[in-house]
Design goal:
about 150 residues, mainly alpha, about 10% strand, elongated
Length: about 150
C-alpha cells in the first residue's frame, strides 16, 4: 500500500490519485487542521475556514467514497474523532472548555437543564448563565453541540 492508495486497493482512479497527491503535503504538514477542514466541509460550514471551504481537494474527498476511506485509514483514530467533534462547535475555545475541561486552564463551560427543564449554558465555577460564546461571540444553541 502506498500513501496514494488505500488498503486492499489495487486500482485508484486518476482523479483520486491526483487529489491525494495534492492533499498529502498539506495533510503531512498539519493533519489535524486538514481533518478539521474536511469535517467543516462535511457539515456545510466551509465558509468558516475562508478560502479552504472551496478547496478542490476537500470537495473531492466529500464526494468520493474511496477517498473518504483513504483519509480515515491515513488518520489516527483518536485525532479523527476529536476533529469530528470539534467541527460541531462554534470555535475551538468553546470545544476545549466543554469537552476537555481538565486540559483547559480557563473557566469550564457546561450545558445544563435549569430546574430540570430550561436549557442553559453556564460559564465558570460560579455557573454564570451565558447566551453567547465567550471566545467567538456566536449565539449558543438551546442544546448541547455534541451528544454524549
Amino acid at each position: 500500500m502506498t500513501p496514494l492508495t488505500g488498503p486492499g486497493c489495487w486500482y485508484t482512479s486518476i482523479w483520486c490519485r491526483s487529489t491525494r497527491k495534492l492533499a498529502l503535503p498539506e495533510y503531512n504538514r498539519n493533519f489535524p487542521f486538514f481533518l478539521l477542514k474536511y469535517f467543516y466541509a462535511v457539515r456545510g460550514r466551509g465558509k468558516k475556514l475562508g478560502h479552504f471551504g472551496s478547496d478542490g481537494k476537500v470537495r473531492h474527498l466529500l464526494k468520493c467514497k474511496s477517498c473518504k476511506r483513504w483519509l480515515e485509514t491515513m488518520s489516527p483514530q483518536e485525532t479523527l474523532l476529536r476533529q469530528k467533534r470539534l467541527s460541531k462547535y462554534c470555535c475551538s475555545g468553546l470545544y476545549c472548555a466543554v469537552e476537555e475541561p481538565a486540559t483547559n486552564n480557563g473557566e469550564p463551560v457546561a450545558f445544563i437543564l435549569f430546574r430540570g427543564e430550561d436549557p442553559m449554558w453556564v460559564f465558570g465555577q460560579k455557573s454564570t448563565p451565558i447566551s453567547y460564546c465567550p471566545w467567538c461571540g456566536h449565539r449558543l444553541p438551546n442544546r448541547p453541540y455534541a451528544e454524549g
